[in-house]
Every structure is written in C-alpha cells, then in structure tokens.
C-alpha cells in the first residue's frame, strides 16, 4: 500500500500531462524515431517514468509497454548504432525487469528473450565502455531471475566474464 508522499502513482498520472511526461504509447512511438536523439530522449523519459512506478503502477506500466510493442522495440534498441540509445535501453530494461517495479516482470523477461535481446545484451557486456558494462550487468542481474535467461547467459559463457568485467568497471 502506498503511503502519502510515495512514488506509487498510477501510470496515467506519471505519463500524463500533469507529470510533464508523454503517455507511454507516445514514448514508445518516440523510441521508433529515425533520429537517435529523439530515441534517446524518449528512452530517458520512459526511464524516469519506470523509476517512479512500483506495485500496481509498475504492473500497469509494464503491461502498457508489453502491449504497446515496447519490449520488442527495447530488444531491437540494444543493437542501436548509438551508445546513448543502447545505454538508455539497458536502463529501462533493467528497471522494467525488476520484480519490485513490476510484479509481472517475468512476462517482460520472457518477451525480451523471445525477441532476441539476449545476443545484443551480451554484446553490451563485452563493451569497452564502463558505463555500458555496468548497465548491462544491472539488467542481467534482474533478467537472470528467469531460468531461461540464466541458462542463456551460462550457455554463452557470459557469466564468468561479465562478473569479472563488472567488478573491474565498478572498482
């Protein structure tokens, strides 16, 4: 149960004009832009909204992203040619795949794997950019609560490598 002053507001409030954010569907549309800056901006706004949604609000937001085609788009954006877009996508994925944000995050995790996010995410783990690596490890931390994701990571030899690389990036 939300207490006064908490961030557990309904996604409509988070994504409506009163909060200064476009609706989730508009953010997903912005993520489809041909302009990398617009994609990154839409992802940054979605990241802010996701960062404020927990419990029922997080569940509603997760469902809106899944139903709006946002999960497949996030999987695709992990391979975007622009690092800023990849980083923002990792941040959104890491938070959307947290059970504390969306109690139904398992559906997002499974959808990401079905849409081919695995290889692109693992490519981010091997990035030379420490920030990209930290975001990728954070996303994997939440994704690997799903058995299929954990199996995928182990089968592709990324478990040992990512933990060593992340420890160096965080040092």
- Mean pLDDT, nearest integer? 84
Q: Which runs of at least 5 residues are low in confidence (pLDDT < 50)?
A: 1-18
Helical segment count: 11
Number of strands: 0
Which structural class fits the helix and strand makeup?
Answer: mainly alpha
Report helical residue fraction.
over 70%
N-to-C order of helices and strands: HHHHHHHHHHH
Q: What is the CA–CA distance across the termini?
A: 37 Å
What overall geometry do the principal axes of the alpha carbons give?
globular
In percent, how much strand structure appears in the residues?
Answer: under 5%
Oligomer: single chain
- Rg for CA atoms: 15 Å
What summary fits the major beta sheet?
none
């Amino acid at each position: 149960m939300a207490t006064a002053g908490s961030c557990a507001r309904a996604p409509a409030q988070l994504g409506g004009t009163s909060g200064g954010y476009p609706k989730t569907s508009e953010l997903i549309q912005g993520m489809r832009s041909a302009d990398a800056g617009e994609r990154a901006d839409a992802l940054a706004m979605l990241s802010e909204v996701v960062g404020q949604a927990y419990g029922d609000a997080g569940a509603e937001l997760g469902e809106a992203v899944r139903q709006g085609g946002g999960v497949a788009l996030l999987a695709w954006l992990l391979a975007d040619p622009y690092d800023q877009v990849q980083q923002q996508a990792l941040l959104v994925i890491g938070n959307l795949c947290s059970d504390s944000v969306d109690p139904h995050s398992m559906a997002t995790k499974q959808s990401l794997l079905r849409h081919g996010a695995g290889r692109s995410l693992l490519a981010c783990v091997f990035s030379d950019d420490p920030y990209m690596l930290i975001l990728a490890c954070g996303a994997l931390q939440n994704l690997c609560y799903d058995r299929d994701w954990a199996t995928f990571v182990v089968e592709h030899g990324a478990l040992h490598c990512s933990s060593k690389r992340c420890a160096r990036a965080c040092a």
